[in-house]
Write a structure and sequence with these properties.
This protein is α/β, with parallel strands linked by helices. It folds into three domains: about 120 residues, 3-Layer(aba) Sandwich (Rossmann fold); about 150 residues, GAF domain (Beta-Lactamase, 2-Layer Sandwich), CATH 3.30.450.40; about 100 residues, no CATH class. About 55% of the residues lie in helices and about 15% in strands. It is built from 16 helices and 15 strands. A six-stranded antiparallel β-sheet has the order 10-9-8-13-12-11, sandwiched between helices. Strands 2-1-3-6-7 form a five-stranded parallel β-sheet, sandwiched between helices. It has a two-stranded antiparallel sheet with strand order 4-5. The protein is elongated, with a radius of gyration of 44 Å.
Length: about 500
Amino acid sequence: MNAPSRGSGIPLRVLMIEDSPADAELVLAQLRRGGYAPAAHRVETAVALRAALASEAWECVLSDYELPRFGGLAALQIVREMQDDVPFIVVSGAIGEDTAVAVMRAGAHDYVMKDTLARLCPAITRELRDVAVRRERRHAALALEADSTVAAALNRVGRGLIAVVAVPSLLSTLCEITAAVLRCDSSHTLLWDHAGEVFRPIATYGATPEAQAMARAMAVPRTILDELLTALEHDDVAHCTPSAAAPLCTPHQQAGRQLCIALRRGAEVIGMQVASRCDAAHPFGAVALRIGRGIAQIASLALEQARVRQELEQSNRLKSDFVATMSHELRTPLHIILGYTDLLREGEFGPLCAAQRDALQRIERSGAVLLELVNATLDLSRLERGLAPVDVEPIALGTWLHGLVNEDEGLGRKAEIAFCIELADDLPIVHRPRQADGHPSQHHPQRVQVHRQRLRDAARPARGRRRGDRRFGHRRRHRTRDLANYLRAVSPRR
């Protein structure tokens, strides 16, 4: 009975180890009555058994225990060696209890007596269900292992690329990490050269000096890579065919396996990461493809961040140069204003009354503050370029606030508002910048200007309103509340 039997029912590929054709027919008839449509193959020797197991994957093996030239235990051992997960059920005419226990301990799934074949179909159904459960668990375990491998590899790629900001170092790190996580012999990066309209190798890892010299001379036009670029339009990774690998690899690398990973800017492919294995017998599998897709996403993002960083650094340098130039140009007319103010205050152009002298002092103080602002702006550009040290000194916060209010007391009298602040005794000590000559500056220029403007806004009456107007009084009370709220805000909380 070497030909498969046909019938209606659940298809079942059965390998029968039986020396009696009549007994085999009885077993098949029982299977048909149980709702199966068996496709059976019968063997009697170990050689035939090995040939049958090597030629096809069987769903169930039914074996007699005693055969003239073969035995059930020997058959069980061969089945476990070649198809370990297939159910093995002993169907025998006479088997003792001790023998049945020995067979089950050896790895058989069940045993059925030939005079009680009604148990055969339920036993097969149960074992097929158990096989399906075991396979699902095994597949789940393999999937979990693959996910763990991919996650660990991409975590290594991300940590490696995040730590590098310069493009040349980034590409060298990318080549090294790609070769490590994909377990390949070498890796190199090609980027699109807009000026030459070719792909050029920028970085390599794992290649011999001869291969590196050949790579530096490579220049690949886009037209030669049409097949590969078309594949990368639909996926982030692509296996390189021999024709596609020829312009991307050295002759030694072309004999192996190549995986091409797309580097993108948006939807445009701006480069490729090529991973090469010299041994053609080890292709890139499903896990390697998943890792390659992750590398494509992470590397593309890292390259874009590095490009944006370079542009920002260049813009920042231009801004610093502009600020330095403007600060230098602003100081020239400001020094002239302060010089003439000093001459007026000293009476070089005639005597001054007390009010005029007080106004000149205020002009001089404001000019000094503006000069500090200009110098601080220049110092900021120097700090950004690392050309100026930072020197600070302590200052009592209460003293600073009282001095700030006293400077603008005249504005308060003009608006019929009296400035009054209440400060705690245990205010902390803060720090302010020291001038380049070592003397303490009046105030921190930027912050003082902001605070002074807020004080003046709080003291200034509503524009266009008369003092007798009721709305003027409302606006004045409103600004007074603003001043009180502001002073509470700038005072540190206890």
